Fold:
Amino acid sequence: MNIEKTKCLIIGSGPAGFTAAIYASRANLSPVLYEGLQPGGQLTTTTDIENFPGYSAGVSGTQLMEDLRQQAVKFGADIRSGIATAADLSSRPFHITIDEDKIIATETLIIATGATAKYLGLPDEKKYAGLGVSACATCDGFFYRKKSVAVVGGGDTACEEAIYLSGLASKVYLIVRKPYLKASKIMQARIEKNTKIEVLFEHNTLGLFGENGVEGVRLVKRAGSPEAKEYDLPIDGFFLAIGHTPNSSLFASCLDTDATGYIKTVPGTPKTGIPGIYAAGDVADPVYRQAITAAASGCQAAIEVERFLSLNGLIK
Structure:
């Protein structure tokens, strides 16, 4: 199998990956970046972004990622299509297999593979993606000021999203499958005290409807029971808050991860347990999951790569 050598390999093409490529390129490290399954990452599924610095008029997720990509290319990043399909991190140089037919031998590795939001699996979620369906209240809540929205989930994340949205929307429905909240006691108390939030216990989502975007959700209360009841609830936005899955499975046997699969790093840094390997962006961030924080960690990872290569005599 063909083996290619490089000093810096970046896997992933979201804000973390492209920012790492920008910094590594400007440091003359000639980074190679593979875009992965979803070039541009999760933001390419978002219509408008209004909270990324420098875009006062807002920008589409696709355009933001293209701008970052072109900036990386401008400084010399080698950006390629391809998917990492195997990883041998047992010794340096690390060996990463691309598309099962090419091996990259790299002195340093930046993992920026992101995370994937969990969905209910309804066809309508794809139909209305960017048209009323979102998995990030912080990203998209602004568009629902003084409107009615629903949040699906019963844990701390769902409660946090509902509380955040209550500061913007006129009404927030919290759709909970169980007859109780799984959230912490303090979070439950905040939900109970919030007059804008109505909790719909023992409810399941059947589908969404609307002409040019979400106009309502079809619900069933106490599904499967004799008193089961289906009804339509008018809403303008539908938010999923049932968790994320970090795209770390390829490295889980080699690197330390938490119970969910997020790659563990040295606090305050992108350093993993293996010198020369760094994790940036949502694959290592179960808390913030924002484009700006991902970009910042990509910057940190590239700076750490330069330091590592310098300290080990791999660059002048």
User: Anything to note?
Assistant: The mean pLDDT is 94. The domain at 2-116+244-311 is CATH 3.50.50.60 (FAD/NAD(P)-binding domain). The chain has seven helices and 19 strands.
